[in-house]
TrEMBL record:
Ranges of residues in domain IclR-ED: 59-243
Gene3D superfamilies, per database record: 3.30.450.40, Winged helix-like DNA-binding domain superfamily/Winged helix DNA-binding domain
GO biological process, one term: negative regulation of DNA-templated transcription
Record organism: Nitratireductor aestuarii
GO molecular function: DNA binding; DNA-binding transcription factor activity
Name the UniProt record assigns to this protein: IclR family transcriptional regulator
Amino acid sequence: MSKGLRVLEIVAKAPDGLRLTEVAEASNLTRAGARRLLLTFVAEGWMHQEGRLFLMSPKLLTVARSWLGSTPLWRHAVPILRTVSRSVGESCSAAVLQGEDVVYVARVAGSAILAESLDVGARLPAYCTSMGRVLLSELDEAELARFLGQMTLRARTPKTITAPGTLAERIAQARRDGHAIVDEELELGLRSIAVPVRSRAGRIVASINVSTRTARCTVGEMRSLFLPHLLDAAREIEEYLPLH
């Protein structure tokens, strides 16, 4: 058990991947022992192999985010989200990625009510939500292609993007911009804007958003009015994240 966890830790710290010999040397294992553990992790979905390189899969991020969603962090975050909600007059939420969905871990409702029931614990598909696209922007190109290839991309409205290539472009845009906007793809009449919450190491571990009715705010107004509040809130929440 301890040897396997050590190998997992070693590969997790190498975003560009490691060769078998490198893992064996770093873990003080024989090549045969390291190979056996690496192939087990690949078979169980914790790692994937690209040529001679072993890399972590998104499964570890999903577990880490699941753990994050159960921590007391979000009790500290609720007052921060409430400040945003009061400042902009709209709902403000936080979510983590679990499997193909975003799971709400904190929420302060505004005056506009969604058709969806969005209490803490509610799940929505990641591909058509602003927080989901921010969370998916943490994946590299190959990981994202695999992730989207496994998902059922259903059109929830006439505006929902379901083409994997177009979705990948939108997620890449979110990565470049540092925020994502989804306009009537989840529900007609609803648009939202989301930003990442990052760990001390710079990894995206959660996302927060503001959602509003299309009649209340344009996309441009969301960027000018909502985005500064969200960025400030994300920085405040990050102060509560553990150092490691």
